Amino acid sequence: MTDLNHNIFWQVHRDLPREAPGSDDSTLRALSMLPALPASARILDIGCGPGAQTVALARATSGHIIAVDTHQPFLDELVHRADQAGVADRIHPLQASMFDLDFDHPFDLIWSEGAIYIIGFERGLREWRRLLKPGGLIAVTEISWLKPNLPEAARAFWDEAYPGMASVEANLTRLAAAGYRSLGHFTLPERDWWDNYYHPMAARIELLRQAYRENPEAQAALDSECAEIEVYRQYSDWYGYVFYLGQVVGT
Question: Would you tell me the crossing angle of helices 168-177 and 121-129 to the nearest 10 degrees?
Fold first, then answer.
């Protein structure tokens, strides 16, 4: 990625409501499918982005949340949102990589929306399991194939963008192999892609097109950002983000 492409990417993704498909409704639905958390539960939100789901979790629980991301502007936005919501005292931002997490005490719950793909679904499940208490819980969203007979255009796009993308059935098998009992799963509704993610992103892209109208390289970078939106617009029946919920088995 060139410096300009990198700059365009962050301009497109700056200050969006969410950094992946999702909604408070889906966050709370996933939380409702888990066993009750203990009072003052320890929660780890990995790849928290600007923290929409972090704030929703803090409002819905009495837990203390360590929210991890590598991008400091996202953590700064999380602090602002948490302060506005009155939950800043229970959210603790941490600039760190999901590839190198180490804590002195284990967690009751690990949460990750739209981020586990960075490390890979299977690897993330396996490596993060050591951070959980016996019987600890995990809730992650992962982009997944929803049915067979994939259109070639959709397969070609995601084979390049995310070669590790798998079916729901394959991911449930991976969940079990990583040492978790499945507690359920569900596909995020299409509005979770559009309302807080793709529509705001598309509006930002149009503004940047005007700002960079004399720059062909920038326009090409913006075309790349648009491509993902158009693939979803055409082929959303075949793939989506799925919430996977699990509980550690054994010790």
Answer: 30
User: What is the third-level CATH fold of 21-194+236-248?
Assistant: Rossmann fold (3.40.50)
pLDDT value at 94 more than 90: yes
Classify residue 117 as exposed, middle or buried by CB count within 10 Å of its CB (0-12, 13-18, 19+). Answer: buried
Per-residue pLDDT, averaged over 142-159, amounts to 96
Question: How many whole angstroms from its chain centre is CA 28?
Answer: 15
- Are 193 and 17 in contact by the 8 Å Cβ rule? The answer is no
Q: Where are the domains of the chain?
A: 21-194+236-248
Is the entire prediction scored with pTM above 0.90? yes
DSSP state of 193: H
Other C-beta atoms lying within 10 Å of the C-beta of residue 143: 22
Residue 101 has pLDDT above 90, yes or no: yes
- Give me the residues paired with residue 160 across strands: none
Cα dihedral angle (37, 52, 158, 194), rounded to 10 degrees? 120
Query: 116-143: per-residue pLDDT in tens?
Result: 999 999 999 999 999 999 999 999 999 9
Question: What is the spatial distance between Cα 220 and Cα 131, in angstroms, rounded to a whole number?
Answer: 41
Distance from C-alpha of 37 to C-alpha of 94, rounded to nearest angstrom = 22
Condensed to tens digits (0 to 9), the pLDDT of residues 176-217 reads 999 999 999 999 999 999 999 999 999 999 999 999 998 988
Helix (H, G, I), strand (E, B) or coil at 45: strand
